[in-house]
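Margin note from the TA: students keep mixing up input and output lines. Inputs are the sequences; the output is the structure of the whole complex. Example:
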Amino acid sequence: MTDVITICGSLRKGSFNRIVMNVLPGLAPEGMQIKEAPPISEFPLYNADIQNSTGFPASVHALVDAIRAADGVIFNTPEYNFGIPAPLKNALDWVSRVPNQPFVGKPIAIQSASPGPLGGARVQYDLRRAMVFLDALTLNKPEIFIGNCAQRIDEKTGKITDEQTIGFIKQQLAAFAKFIASYGGKR
Amino acid sequence: MSDNQLNVIVICGSLRKASYNAALARTLPALAPPGMAVKAAPGWDKMAVYNHDLHADGKFPAEVTAWGDAIHSADGVIIVSPEYNWSIPGGLKNAIDWVSRFKEVPFKEKPVALQSCAGGALGGSRMQYHLRQSLTAIDALIFGKPEIFVSFSAKKFDEKTLELTDQPTVDIVKQQLASFEKFIRRMNGRK
């Protein structure tokens, strides 16, 4: 079984990106199990003094351990001010400080939904760049940009209503499974 | 030369004779680890400016095919390029645009590492991040770290011979090549 964890860049309960994330387990190809990663909402704002006095917070360890144990990681994230949402960047900044970096060589995939027409394209290229520093293996294609998401996702039922979007996501998950099988492997 | 020595080609993004990037590209064979042979890729300087009409019959110009074939048969590719107007030099982008039209895009799942020299402090980093984006579109396996940004390049090369004289730069380039060999072997081994 290929174990994949998801990290949502939005902390908002009704987040469109969270809805997409919650739908993923049902769209995964056979042999892939998708579960939500431990929460990033409890991480303090990064400060090296915390790390140097009381050590890494338990919540950071929990996420790091989950990344290590996973075969792949999927980010479901909105775009804030053309960039990575601060809660997600803060989590990555914490993770980047632990010894034996958990993202090194780790297959990752990115999905974003936004009410605008670009579907979060700019956050994805920002996130790809940060993942270069973390030395992850980022899936190239297909890319998932869910533009005009309010018309494609039903906030009340928590479902994706647009069949084409569901089709694209399935394609990406299948490509991600292949990518993990080809280039992944826990080290 | 062992049987499993990797065949890596280097593409330079500048045509200028006294280019620092070309000088760096020429240095790579000597800095490569024993498991990797580095050779210059065929030139892209004779390629026409891309126009779909030129291959509407399904046939690509010979210089484009030669470049694509070399990439296709290499175990890995290193691109050493300057930054023009904060981005990829037009000539290099032209070559990439040409081979991106092949039925089997030669960069697909090909390990690619990047290096750049620039006269300024940023060492061509803006070009590298644009290039990463284009390489994502053509589905290359882009090497992560260490990154090679040779800043203030006029101070790192001999003025007359264009030999790379800066020892820290030599060291980091060697490190990248050694890591790139591991990256290629890891990627290939799992295919």
